[in-house]
């Protein structure tokens, strides 16, 4: 691809220091301004060729339209639902993410939530801190021999499967893109969602948030599951219908939920957070030193590679200008 001229980059959130270092070592001027309000970002963005964000900055069409020089939006992480990709594409702005930076961290948190649900670890910890010694109240269940349904067999789904197989879980999964023979090579039995729902003791979702995945787990699908099924969402809020999940928890159709993400963050409605059978975290999937270091370094290197005319990695939008771009192959949904 032809080189793209990027002289200045705005970093609007806290990223690993190596991100700035890599950019500056390659002659790109970097400004860091964190926690800007929308109007402040609209006023600021016109002066920059590139913007680096994490998940808190909402790069709306208003911001994109105000960015007269912007050529690249780099998301130091995986999901790009905080970026109006369509608006960016229309303006010829490349949007890229770091597709593998937080894979291990998100997979490990998923596994931690599955284990917490099986043994009531957080609830037992809080009971001990309250001065109690209640062994009977926190009777758990082994993961050995249980069925884990993985919806979305991309990078994270694959890593979750390999880790939970070591606990002796049977892993089954659904993905519309990953070939069945590939899933099978990972030890995952591929099948349709209709086949998957009634078999699972645990379900974990690892899909992007898009129209086809909004409310993927809802009243109808919960009714198809085993009574007492436990669910985990470390992907994006909204994949599990929160109102339907609460109803399933109240009826006992769902035996517990591990939630790292919510439709609204932080959630104003605390019904799920406060439910005794819910283990929740404040969106910690990528919150490890290692993941943040990888994401910060990766997005900087990808921008540098773009400037130097190398193939793009992690591009999720296509620039309509006549340049050749190499897009990473789709993984999962």
Describe this structure in words.
This protein is an alpha/beta fold. 43% of the residues are buried. 33% of the residues lie in helices and 15% in strands. The chain is built from twelve helices and twelve strands. It is elongated, with a radius of gyration of 21 Å. Helix 1 runs parallel beside helix 12 (289-307). Helix 10 links the parallel strand 9 and strand 10. It has a seven-stranded parallel sheet. A five-stranded parallel sheet has the order 2-1-3-4-5. The model is unreliable at 320-332 (pLDDT under 50). The chain has two domains: 8-101 and 289-317, 3-Layer(aba) Sandwich (Rossmann fold), CATH 3.40.50; 103-280, NAD(P)-binding Rossmann-like Domain (Rossmann fold), CATH 3.40.50.
Question: What features would you highlight for this structure?
Answer:
33% helix, 2 domains, Rossmann fold, elongated, disordered C terminus, 7-stranded parallel sheet, 12 strands
List the helices and strands and how they pair.
Layout (H helix, E strand, L loop, with lengths): L7 E4 L5 H9 L3 E4 L5 H8 L4 E4 L7 H6 L5 E4 L9 H6 L3 E4 L5 H17 L1 H9 L17 E5 L3 H11 L4 E5 L5 H6 L3 E2 L2 H4 L5 E4 L13 H6 L4 E5 L8 H10 L2 E6 L18 E3 L8 H19 L26
Parallel strand pairs: 1-2, 1-3, 3-4, 4-5, 6-7, 6-9, 7-8, 9-10, 10-11, 11-12
């Amino acid at each position: 691809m032809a080189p793209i001229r990027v002289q200045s980059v705005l970093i609007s959130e806290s990223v690993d220091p190596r991100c700035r270092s890599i950019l500056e070592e390659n002659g790109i001027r970097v400004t860091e301004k964190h926690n800007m309000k929308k109007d402040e970002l609209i006023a600021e963005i016109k002066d920059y060729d590139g913007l680096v964000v994490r998940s808190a900055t909402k790069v709306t069409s208003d911001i994109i339209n105000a960015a007269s020089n912007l050529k690249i939006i780099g998301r130091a992480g995986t999901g790009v639902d905080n970026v109006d990709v369509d608006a960016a594409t229309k303006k010829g702005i490349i949007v890229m993410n770091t597709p593998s930076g937080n894979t291990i961290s998100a997979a490990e948190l998923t596994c931690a939530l599955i284990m917490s649900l099986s043994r009531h670890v957080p609830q037992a910890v809080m009971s001990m801190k309250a001065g109690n010694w209640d062994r009977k109240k926190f009777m758990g269940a082994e993961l050995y021999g249980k069925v884990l349904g993985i919806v979305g067999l991309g990078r994270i789904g694959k890593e979750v499967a390999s880790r939970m197989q070591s606990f002796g879980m049977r892993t089954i999964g659904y993905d519309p893109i990953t070939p069945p023979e590939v899933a099978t090579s990972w030890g995952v039995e591929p099948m349709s969602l209709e086949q998957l729902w009634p078999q699972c003791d645990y379900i974990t979702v690892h899909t992007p948030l898009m129209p086809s995945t909004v409310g993927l787990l809802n009243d109808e699908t919960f009714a198809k599951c085993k009574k007492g099924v436990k669910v985990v969402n470390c992907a994006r809020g909204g994949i599990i219908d929160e109102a339907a999940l609460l109803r399933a928890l109240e009826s006992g159709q769902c035996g517990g939920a591990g939630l790292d993400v919510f439709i609204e963050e932080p959630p104003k409605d605390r019904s799920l957070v406060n439910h005794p059978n819910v283990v929740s975290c404040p969106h910690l999937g990528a919150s490890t030193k290692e993941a943040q270091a990888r994401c910060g370094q990766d997005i900087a290197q990808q921008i540098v590679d773009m400037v130097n005319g190398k193939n793009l990695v992690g591009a999720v939008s296509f620039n309509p200008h006549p340049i050749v771009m190499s897009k990473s192959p789709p993984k999962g949904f």
